[in-house]
Amino acid sequence: MATTEEEYLWSCTLTGTNKEYIWAPGDDDKDDDDDDHDPSVKPGHRLLIKSGILMPGAKDGEVNIVQLESTGYNKVKVEVPICAIKAGGDPMQYIDLLLPHKAVFKLIQGQGPISLNGSHCVDLDSYRDIGFGGALDESSDWTDNDDGGEGDKKVEDKKEDKKEEKKE
What we know:
Shape: elongated
Oligomer: single chain
């Protein structure tokens, strides 16, 4: 099944006066109180950080370090440096990090400015799969199965297979 996903350009800049950025897209969805307790009707958000760039104006020789705070496996708090760039050297660092949960970025050393860039991915499949009353769309006559490689079959085809088995 193809996924329905939208991607948006994302960026944040950390400086000596603005050392922290919080990415929490689910917290912005306060439109409908009924949906607040049902995560199945909300889109999934992921943040793909591709690079960190030390912007002009950084003090020569100063090392700038960005730390990430998020939730890991079994809801364990994770704090890890994701980017370290020394002014006067290569101003860009490749990161390539996918974040499926709320995250806090902190400039823990240096004055920046350092810009993090990437994509905010929004998975809209939950909207497509949930119909009126929370039921799956009944117009679909396809079914997923774990049949050892036969793939998906139409429901009518499966019924015919069962009839043939009974005849034998």
